[in-house]
Amino acid sequence: MIIAIDGPAASGKGTIARRLATHYGLPHLDTGLLYRAVGAAALERGVDFADEAALAGIAASLDVAALDAEALKSGAVGEAASRVAALPAVRAALLRLQQDFARQPGGAVLDGRDIGTVIAPEAPVKLFVTATPEARAVRRHRELAARGEAVGFEEVLADIRRRDERDSGRASAPLVQAADAQVLDNTTLGVEESWQAALALAERARAGR
Ligand SMILES: Nc1ncnc2c1ncn2[C@@H]1O[C@H](COP(=O)(O)OP(=O)(O)OP(=O)(O)O)[C@@H](O)[C@H]1O
Ligand SMILES: Nc1ccn([C@@H]2O[C@H](COP(=O)(O)O)[C@@H](O)[C@H]2O)c(=O)n1
């Protein structure tokens, strides 16, 4: 069974995806980490963000087993990720890897922006997890503060809005709700309530209701 979870930045889709994976005993891929790894490498190596061929080369040679999720979660890397993710050649270089992960025997849980629309449109369970930009900025601000990143709330909110615009407005695999996705708006829900709501929606989709 493939479970596809999409949604904007800091909507809580990763938290839900991890818990669904544990609940159903499925492998999980946070596809945002792939774009973050390309963005981080570009920053580290000083690659021009307009050099699509060089960035696609980095994407094609990613060692997925070596991704350091913790190190890739900084605000600067998130911004770099959303810039490289707008480039069709970068997306093309990461496509097969994600599709193979989704289609492994027994299934998988993937979260990102285009899982239900591009990577695994055949997924029987599709959730689109969202919340207002303000609610998401509160979450991201708290998360960055816990990492020791001293950044103001207004800056985080502006970053969230900029990323929403870039992710939804790009021509290549934009962030968009799949027609057959179930929407979970967790603006007023805490982590536990959001998880319970997601599980109920997943169970409903599994039962074909
Ligand atoms: N319903 C919720 N209420 C409050 N905080 C939440 C909720 N869901 C997740 N969080 C917290 O918000 C932060 C972002 O959550 P998470 O990483 O799951 O979001 P995401 O959509 O996967 O983000 P990204 O787009 O960066 O991958 C985390 O610190 C998480 O613990
Ligand atoms: N399937 C995906 C996943 C991510 N992106 C881009 O990567 C950026 C970082 O993702 P996070 O989920 O870790 O925040 C994100 O802003 C997207 O631009 C993507 O395009 N497709």
From TrEMBL:
Listed under catalytic activity are: CMP + ATP = CDP + ADP; dCMP + ATP = dCDP + ADP
Q: Which residues does the UniProt record annotate as the domain Cytidylate kinase?
A: 3-201
Which cellular compartments is it found in?
Cytoplasm
Which keywords fit this entry according to its UniProt record? ATP-binding, Cytoplasm, Kinase, Nucleotide-binding, Transferase
Q: Its Enzyme Commission number?
A: 2.7.4.25
**Source organism's superkingdom?**
Bacteria
Keyword Disulfide bond listed: no
Question: Pfam families under this entry?
Answer: Cytidylate_kin
Keyword Lyase listed: no
The primary location reported for this protein is: cytoplasm
Which GO molecular function terms does the record list? Answer: kinase activity
Report residues binding ATP.
7-15
Entry's HAMAP family? Cytidyl_kinase_type1 (MF_00238)
Homology family: Belongs to the cytidylate kinase family. Type 1 subfamily.
**What protein am I looking at?**
Cytidylate kinase
Q: Which organism is it from?
A: Ancylobacter koreensis
Gene symbol?
A: cmk
